[in-house]
């Protein structure tokens, strides 16, 4: 990822292939960990909320 925050990479992946990011259990796990693990980019927190992983 070259120093990028994982949350930004997830948001970018969601723009490219939303079904892959939103449905795959492994992707959902990573999104939840990023969103709950501390300061996450707003896009990652929004993505976690949209797919129902956090409120």
Keywords:
globular; 4 helices; 55 residues; single chain
Describe the structure.
- With 55 residues, the protein is an all-alpha fold.
- The protein has one domain (6-51).
- The chain is built from four helices and no strands.
- The chain has helices at 6-16, 18-23, 25-36, 42-50.
- The longest helix has 12 residues, at 25-36.
- It is globular, with a radius of gyration of 10 Å.
Q: Please indicate the percent range of residues in DSSP E strands (runs of 2 or more).
A: under 5%
Helix/strand class: mainly alpha
The coarse overall form would be globular
Average pLDDT works out at 86
The share of residues in helices is: 55-70%
SSE pattern? HHHH
pLDDT under 50 segments (min length 5)? none
Number of helices: 4
| Total count of strands | 0
What is the gyration radius calculated from CA atoms? Answer: 10 Å
Query: How many distinct folded domains?
Result: 1
Ends: how far apart? Answer: 27 Å
- Largest sheet features: none
């Amino acid at each position: 990822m070259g120093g990028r925050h994982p949350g930004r990479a997830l948001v970018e992946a969601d723009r490219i292939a939303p079904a892959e990011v939103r449905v795959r259990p492994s992707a959902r796990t990573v999104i939840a960990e990023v969103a709950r693990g501390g300061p996450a980019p707003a896009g990652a927190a929004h993505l976690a909320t949209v797919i129902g992983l956090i409120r």
